[in-house]
Amino acid sequence: MTDFSSVRNKVAIVTGASDGLGKAIALCFADNGMKVVVSDINAEKGNKVVDEIRKAGGEATFFRTDVSQEEDVKGLVKFAVDTYGRLDGIVNNAGISAESRPTHEYSLSEFDQLTSINLKGVFLGMKFGIEAILRSKVSGGFVINVASLAGLLGNSSMAIYTSAKHGVVGLTKSAALDYAPYNITVNAICPGTIKTSIWGNAPEEVIQQYAKLLSPNGRLGDPKEVAHLALFLASDLARYLSGSAITVDAGSSAGKLTPTQWAHPEILE
Ligand SMILES: NC(=O)c1ccc[n+]([C@@H]2O[C@H](COP(=O)([O-])OP(=O)(O)OC[C@H]3O[C@@H](n4cnc5c(N)ncnc54)[C@H](O)[C@@H]3O)[C@@H](O)[C@H]2O)c1
C-alpha cells in the first residue's frame, strides 16, 4: 500500500486559502496531519477555514496577507516559523482573474494590479518561503505554485492573466534547478476549469457552457481534485518530481478536441 504519512507534521503555508483551491488544499493538508498556516487577504473567511480545520481535529492558524506586499509576505513566513519552529513548504496559490478583453484595451493599472498579485505575489512567496525552508534544514522541502493552463497556452481576451501565469511557470522551472541540490522540489499546478468563486457572478448556465467548451469530460473540476495533487507534491513520494507544470484539466490541453463517430457505440449500453 502506498503510504502518504510522510506529510504528517510537515509545516506548510497556503496563500489564498480562504476560498476555492487554496481552501481545498489547506483542508486536505490538515486532514492528512500537516500543520497549516492559512493565509489570505480575507481574514473573516480565513478564520472560518481555521475553525473548520480545528473542529475536525487538525492544526492550523490564520495570518492575514496581501501577497502583493513584500512586508506582508515576509511577516507571513516569519509567523509560520515563529509558530511552528520551521517551514517545510509553501503553496503560492492566491490569484485573481481579469476581465476578458483584447490586449490593447487593458489599462496599465489593470496590468500592474493583476501582475502584482498573480506574479509578484508568487515571487515574494518563493523568495521568503524558500529562504525559510533552507534555514529550517528540512529533509523534503517543497514549493507548489498554482499557475493555470493559461501558464502553458495562449488565450484570446486574457493577455495579462496569461502573461502572469506564464511567468509563474518560468519562476517554477528556474527555481527547480536552483534548489534541486538542496532537496527542495518546485512544481506548478496548472488547473483547467475548476468550480470556485474565481468565476465571480457568472450565471450557472454560462459556467456550464464553458465546461462543455473547455473540458473534454464536459464538467467543471472539483477543488479537491487539485488538492489531491498538491498533497502528493508535498509528500516524500514526489521527491524526484520537480520543475514540472502539471495540468489538472481532464485532458483539455492535450490537443484539439474533434467530434468522433464511434463504429460500435453499443459498447456503452
Ligand atoms: N478556478 C479555476 O478554474 C482556476 C483555473 C486556473 C487557475 N486558477 C488559479 O488558482 C488560484 C486560486 O483560484 P481560485 O479559483 O481558488 O479563486 P478564488 O477566488 O476562489 O480564491 C482566491 C483566493 O485568493 C485570495 N486573494 C485574492 N487576492 C489576494 C491577495 N492580494 N493576497 C492574498 N490573497 C488574495 C482571495 O481572497 C481568495 O480567498 C489562482 O491563482 C487562480 O488564478 C484557478
Automatic annotation (TrEMBL):
<keyword id="KW-0560">Oxidoreductase</keyword>
<dbReference type="InterPro" id="IPR036291">
    <property type="entry name" value="NAD(P)-bd_dom_sf"/>
</dbReference>
<dbReference type="InterPro" id="IPR020904">
    <property type="entry name" value="Sc_DH/Rdtase_CS"/>
</dbReference>
<dbReference type="InterPro" id="IPR002347">
    <property type="entry name" value="SDR_fam"/>
</dbReference>
<protein>
    <submittedName>
        <fullName>Glucose 1-dehydrogenase</fullName>
        <ecNumber>1.1.1.47</ecNumber>
    </submittedName>
</protein>
<dbReference type="GO" id="GO:0008206">
    <property type="term" value="P:bile acid metabolic process"/>
</dbReference>
<comment type="similarity">
    <text>Belongs to the short-chain dehydrogenases/reductases (SDR) family.</text>
</comment>
<dbReference type="GO" id="GO:0047936">
    <property type="term" value="F:glucose 1-dehydrogenase [NAD(P)+] activity"/>
</dbReference>
<dbReference type="Pfam" id="PF13561">
    <property type="entry name" value="adh_short_C2"/>
</dbReference>
